[in-house]
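User: Here's a structure from my thesis project, written as structure tokens. My advisor, Dr. K., wants to see whether a designed sequence matches the one we expressed. Can you design one independently, without my sequence as a hint?
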């Protein structure tokens, strides 16, 4: 199931105040309120690089069954892919699903699944 991810850009102090306002009930977040916050546009851009967006596209279109399969599709090293996929998982962009059959060294393969198909960015200019 694909979704839009709403992200916000705000200073740490602004994010903290917004979170406190929501938690206390002073603010009722809109359904399209940001679910993910970054301290700057640059920080968001560091996650959504062209290379990382291409990786998400390959995962979505090719449906690799393991990181080693994804390694072949992308020509990126498994360690690099694992780090990036873990970061994507932390931000809710992908889900890493453990396979059923045991691969080499007694490990089960991990299959990445893309959870979002677009990102909306919002921030206050003033």
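Assistant: Designed independently from the structure alone:
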């Amino acid at each position: 199931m694909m979704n839009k991810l709403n992200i916000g850009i705000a200073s740490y102090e602004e994010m903290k105040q917004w979170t406190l306002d929501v938690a206390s009930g002073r603010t009722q977040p809109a359904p399209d309120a940001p679910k993910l916050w970054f301290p700057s546009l640059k920080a968001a851009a560091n996650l959504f690089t062209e290379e990382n967006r291409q990786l998400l596209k390959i995962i979505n279109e090719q449906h690799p069954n393991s990181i080693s399969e994804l390694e072949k599709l992308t020509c990126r090293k498994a360690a690099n892919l694992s780090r990036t996929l873990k970061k994507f998982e932390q931000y809710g962009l992908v889900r890493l699903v453990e396979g059923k059959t045991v691969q080499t060294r007694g490990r089960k393969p991990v299959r990445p699944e893309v959870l979002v198909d677009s990102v909306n960015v919002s921030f206050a200019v003033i």
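When you compare it with your expressed construct, this may help: The longest helix spans residues 12-24.
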